Amino acid sequence: MEILEKGQGEVRLWDVDEARAWMRENKTRKLIDKVTDEHDAVERFVSDGDYLSYDLSSMVRGPMSLEREICRQRKKDLWIAAKFTLLDTSILVGGGCVSKIDVGFAGLGRPLFKAIEDGRVKTIDWSNGTLALRHKAAAMGVPFLPVRSLAGTDTFKHSGAMVVQDPYTKKRITVVPAVYPDAAIIHVNQCDVHGNCRIFGPSISPVETAMASKRVIVSTEELIPTEEIKRNPGLTTLPYFLVDAVVVAPWGGHPGTTPGYYTYDAENLDEFFAARDDAGVKKYLDKYVYGVKDHYEYLQLIGIERLTRLCENETIREGYRP
Amino acid sequence: MSGKFTDVEFMICQSARAVGDSSTVFVGYGMPQIAMILAQRLYAPDIIQVYEYGAIGPEVATPFRRNMMADARNSYRSYCWTDMNSMMAYAQAGFIDYGVLGAAQIDPFGNINSTMIGGTYERPGKRFTGSGGGNEVASLCWRTLLLMNHQKRRFLPKIDYITSPGYLDGSPGARERAGLPAGTGPSRVITSIAAFDFNPESTRMRLVALRDGVTKDGVLAEMEFEPEVADTIEPIEPPRPEELEMLRTDIDPDRVIIGRVK
Asked: How many Å lie between the alpha carbon of A133 and the closest alpha carbon of chain B?
C-alpha cells in the first residue's frame, strides 16, 4: 500500500500479534472476585508513563472517582485519550498527571488551555471520531482502520494518520492506527464481582476501549449478582474477562451526571470552572481530591443531603433501568 | 448589534429555519444544540437530531443546561441509543443530511478553525478545544451549516489552523481529491448580521442575505476577505415573536446560550 501523505503526530504502536499474546497471557478467564477499592486498583493497574483512556465523560457517566484517585496517587507522565471530554482532562492535567493529550476535544477551562499554550502539556490533535476508531481497530485486533474524515486539514497534519492508496479502487483513503491503552477506566451502571458490566444509555466507546486496553478498571454505581446478569444477558455491555478490577463507587460520576441515577452537581462544577488559573485549580483539588482519603470521604464532604437531591432531580429515568 | 433580540438569538432563529423537516441533522456543541431544538419545536417536528455520543432522534428535554451533552435531557425520547463509532459510521455511509457547527475562525472556502490562534502548534497563542466531532461532521454530512458570530477577526483569508474541512484550497474537486466523500461540504454560513452560501463554481463564500439595517458594505467592512456577492440579496427575517418566546421561556430561560438584550 503506497503512502501518499503522512501526519506528523507521535503515535505509539503495538504489534497486533504481541497484543494478542498479551491478552492471552494476562487477561484471566477465571471467574474470580475482582472487587477492590480504588486505591488498590489504581496502584496496581495505572503506572507513570501509561497511556490512559476513559469512558464515558464530558460530565456524563465519567469515571470521576477513579480520576480523583489517579490524582491522589500523583501518577505522572500519562498520555491520555481525550475523546469526548470536558472535566476529566482538566482534572488530570490540573493534578499534574499528564504529559501528552491525544485530542479529540480538549476541554475545558482556561487553566487547561494555558498548560497547552505554555508547552507543559503536549497535544496530538485527532478528532473524537478518529480517536474512537483507533480504539475500535485495537478492539478488532487489526493494525489500522480506514476513515473518510481528517483528510485535507491541519488536524490530519498534526495527527498520526496517513493517506494511502486503496489497493482495491486506487483512490485515496485515510487510515488511523490502532491505539492500545495501558489502562482504561470506565464508569458503569451495574456490574457483578467478576466484572460483567451493564451500561445503560448511549455511550462513546466503552466496549472498544475495554477490548483495546491492557488493563481495565471499572467503577460501578451498583454491584449486582451474577445470577441477575445471567437472567438478562442482552443487557451486558462488557463480559467479565475484559475487566481487571471492579470498584464499587456510588455517585462515582459526581460532579457529573450518571443519566437515570443522578443529575450533575451544578454548584460543584461552577466551583471547578470558576478556576481561571493553576492556583484556582489547586484550591479545588486540595479540597475535593487531596483533602479526602477516598471516594467515601469525598461523598461525605459533598454530603448525603446534596447527593440525595441530585438523585431526586434526575427526573428522566426511562431507558436507564432494566 | 443592539435591538429587541441578541445576536445569538438572530443566528439561532435563522438556523432553525434552514433545515428541512424529516431530515437527519448532526448537531454540534453549544449554539447548534439550541438551534435544532427550536427547529424541532416550531418548524421540523420530524427532524432527526443525531449526536456524536450515540443518540438518534431525541426530543431534547428543556430547559437547556449549560455545557451539557449526552445527559438524560439531551438523550430524551430518542429512537435509538448507540455509540460514537456507530454515529460516525451513519454519517460516513451517507445517512446524515445536515451538520451544524460553530467555529472561531472561517476562511473564504468555509474551512473552519476551533483549535488554536497565533503562535506555533506546539506553543499556541490561544488554544481552544480542537475538533471534537467537528471534523467528522464537516467531512461526512451532506451539507454543513456554519454558525459564526460576525466579527472581523473571525473572517480571514487564511485561518491559523484548519480544524475541519470546507472546500480546502477552493480548487475544483478539492475535497474529493483529498479523499473526502463526494458531494459534501459547507452549504451556508449564518452570522449575526448576514448569511452566505457557496458559489458552486468557485466554492467561495457568497453573500446572499442581510440583517435589517445592515448594508452590503457594512458586512464587507466586517470581514478580512472579500466574499462574492449574489446578484439578489434577500432580507433576513428577524426573530419572530413565537421563536423568541420559545427560546426564552422553554428552551433557554437561564439565557446561558442566547444571552440577554442589553
From this structure: 6
Is A166 at the interface with chain B, CB within 8 A?
Answer: no
The number of residues making up chain B comes to 262
The CA-atom distances, in angstroms, between B116 and each of A36, A104, A105, A123, A207 are 42, 14, 12, 11, 32
Cβ distance B174 to A118 less than 8 Å, yes or no, reads no
Single-letter code of the amino acid located at B119: G
Does the beta-carbon distance from A106 to B128 stay under 8 Å?
A: yes
Q: How far apart are the first and last CA of chain B?
A: 10
Answer yes or no: are the C-beta atoms of B139 and B209 closer than 8 Å. no
Which chain A residues contact residue B118 at CB under 8 A? none
**pLDDT value, residue A277:** 93
Interface contact flag, A155 B131, Cβ < 8 Å? yes
Delineate the domains of chain B, giving CATH numbers in brackets. 7-251 (3.40.1080.10)
- Comparing alpha-carbon positions, the chain A residue that sits nearest to B74 is A259
Residue-wise pLDDT tens digits, B164-223: 999 999 999 999 999 999 999 999 999 999 999 999 999 999 999 999 999 999 999 999
Residue ranges of E strands in A130-182? 144-147, 162-165, 172-177
- Residue of B66, B129, B168, B180 to mutate, testing the A interface (most A Cβ within 10 Å of its Cβ): B129
Give the C-alpha separation, B35 to B42, whole Å: 11
Q: Which of B71, B83, B123 lies at the smallest CB-CB distance from A203?
A: B83
Contact B101, B134 (CB under 8 A): yes
Question: How many angstroms separate the CA atoms of B202 and B179, rounded?
Answer: 19
Distance from CA of A113 to the nearest CA of B (A): 5
Which pLDDT does position B67 carry in this prediction?
80
A152/B72 CB distance under 8 A: no
Label residue A107 by pLDDT band (50, 70, 90): confident
B52: annotated active-site residue: yes
The band of A321, judged by pLDDT with boundaries at 50, 70 and 90, is confident
ipTM: 0.96
Asked if the model's pLDDT at residue A308 lies above 60, the reply is: yes
Q: What is the pLDDT of residue A1?
A: 83
- Cβ of A132 within 8 Å of Cβ of B119? The answer is no
CATH number at A3-313: 3.40.1080.10
Residue whose entry in the numeric block shows the C-alpha cell 481495565? A216
Mean pLDDT of each 10-residue bin along chain B, 262 residues long = 85 95 94 96 96 97 89 96 98 98 96 97 97 97 97 98 98 96 98 97 98 96 98 97 97 94 86
Alpha-carbon torsion (B56, B61, B67, B71), positive or negative: negative
Rounded Cα distance between A62 and B96, Å, is 28
Pairwise CA distance, residues B243 & A11, whole Å: 48
Residue B33 touches chain A, beta carbons under 8 Å: no
Instruction: Measure the CA–CA gap between A92 and A85, rounded to whole angstroms.
Output: 12
Instruction: Considering the candidates B52, B136, B222, B243, report the single residue annotated as catalytic.
Output: B52
